[in-house]
Target: PAS domain S-box-containing protein/diguanylate cyclase (GGDEF)-like protein
Amino acid sequence: RAKDEGRGNFKYFSEDLTEAAIRRINLESLLRRAIVKEELRIYYQPQIDINSGAIIGAEALLRWHHPEEGVIPPSQFIPVAEETGLIGEIGEWVLLEVCRQGQCWLEAGIPPLTLAVNLSPHQFRHGDIVASLAAILNETGFPAEYLELELTESALMTRESEAVQILEQLRTLGVRLAIDDFGTGYSSLAYLKRFPLDRLKIDKSFIDDIPQLEDDNEIAAAIIGIAHTLRLQVLAEGVETEDQLNFLKKHGCDFYQGFYKSPAVSAETFIALLKQCT
Ligand code: C2E
Ligand code: MG
Ligand code: MG
Ligand code: MG
Model:
C-alpha cells in the first residue's frame, strides 16, 4: 500500500501519476471544446530555396489560441490528441483548411507555393487517409502537386508492411511526400530507398551546433549526400543563424526553414512576408 512506511517514494510516485492522469483528462476535454469553439489555428512557416533565397512554400503548423492561457504550442496538445485519437479529426481539419487556403491563394493570383502538412502516425495507421485526402482535394480543387505530406520515420515504421503501398497510393493522387525529423527515428537506409519520397527534412537537432561542432558538420553533410544519392530534395529544419545557412549552402542543401527567415506566422502575415520578399 502506498501509505505503508518505507514506501514513501512509491506514494509520491503514484500521486504524481494520478495528477498526470487528471491533467490529461482535463486537457482532452479542453481540446474537444477547442475544436468546437474553433480555437485551433493554422500558422505557416516559410520554406526557402537556399540558392535563390525565394520563399517556395510553407509548413502548416497548428496553434491553439486558448482564451485564458494564450497560444498553446503543439508539443503540449498533439501527444494527447495522438493518444486519444482526436488527432484523426484534427488532422483531417488541418488538411481541409490548408487545401482551402492554398486554393484561395492560387485564385488570388499568388504564385504557386508548396504547402506541407504534418501527418501523424495515428492518421497514417487508422482510417483511410488515401480516400479522405482524395475527397478533400476534390472538394477544394487544390492541385495535389502543391500539397506535401510530412511523415516521420515512426509513422512509416508502425505500418511497415503496408507503408510502401499507402505511400504509392498517396503518390498516385499526385501529392508530394517528405520524411520529417530525419535522423531521430529508426533511420533505415533500406526503407528510405523503398519509400517513394520527394524530400528529406534534416532534424533541427543536427543543425543546432553547426558550424561549431565538427561531428555535426560531418553528419549534416553526410545526410545531404545520402539524400542526393537517393535523388531526394533536402531541407534543413531549424536554421537560426547566417553561419548555419552558409554551411548548408556550401554543402549543397536545397532548402531550409527556420527562425533565421521567420517562425510560423498567421496566413495574413505569411502573405505580407511573401510580398516583401519578391
Ligand atoms: P515539426 O513538424 O518538425 O515542425 C517543426 C517545428 O520546429 C515547429 O514547432 C517549428 O515552429 C519549429 N521551428 C522551426 N524553425 C525553428 C527554429 O529556427 N528554431 C526553433 N527553436 N524551432 C523552430 P511547432 O510548431 O511547435 O511544432 C512542433 C511539432 O508539432 C511539429 O514538429 C509536428 O511534429 C507537430 N505538429 C505541428 N502541427 C501539426 C499538425 O497539424 N499535425 C500533426 N500531426 N502534428 C503537428
Ligand atoms: Mg513537420
Ligand atoms: Mg521536423
Ligand atoms: Mg518535430
Notes: Residues 45, 61-62, 73-75, 78, 87, 91, 94, 118, 120, 150, 180-181, 204, 237-240, 257-259, 263-264 surround C2E (ligand 1) (CB under 6 Å). The two ends are 68 Å apart (CA to CA). Residues 8-36 form the longest helix (29 residues).
